[in-house]
């Protein structure tokens, strides 16, 4: 009886740790994506000063779509 309760408790602890690790990994990726997006935006803004804005706006839209796709995939994997 005690062994069964112990194993159930252990299973719950393991599930909580797995969930915690998944959430931490998700936060790591989202913060990394936010930083890389921010850096790319600054790079694109600098290019805007040198070149025309039209081409760079298209790049920005592509970057935002790629970031959204990555985040949607990550949320889909975790949930």
Describe the structure in your own words.
This protein has one domain (2-78). By secondary structure, it is mainly α. The protein has 2 helices and no strands. 95% of the residues lie in helices and 0% in strands. The two termini are 33 Å apart. The radius of gyration is 21 Å and the shape is elongated. It has helices at residues 2-50, 53-78. Helix 1 runs antiparallel to helix 2. The model has no long low-confidence stretch (mean pLDDT 70).
How do you describe this structure in short?
Helices cover 95% and strands 0% of the residues. With 79 residues, it is mainly α. It has one domain.
Tell me, rounded to a whole number, the average pLDDT: 70
Helix and strand pattern? HH
The tally of strands reads 0
Radius of gyration: 21 Å
How many individual domains?
1
Question: How much of the residues is beta strand, in percent?
Answer: under 5%
What overall form do the CA principal axes indicate? Answer: elongated
**Residue ranges: pLDDT <50 for 5 or more in a row?**
none
The largest β sheet comes out as: none
First-residue to last-residue Cα separation: 33 Å
User: Could you estimate the helical fraction of the residues in percent?
Assistant: over 70%
Q: Which structural class is indicated by helix and strand composition?
A: mainly alpha
Enumerate how many helices there are, as a single number.
Answer: 2
């Amino acid at each position: 009886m005690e062994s069964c309760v112990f194993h159930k408790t252990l299973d719950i602890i393991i599930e909580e740790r797995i969930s915690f690790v998944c959430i931490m990994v998700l936060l790591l990726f989202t913060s990394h994506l936010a930083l890389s997006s921010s850096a790319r935006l600054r790079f694109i803004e600098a290019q805007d000063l040198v070149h025309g804005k039209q081409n760079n706006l298209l790049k920005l839209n592509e970057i935002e779509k790629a970031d959204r796709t990555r985040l949607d995939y990550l949320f889909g994997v975790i949930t």
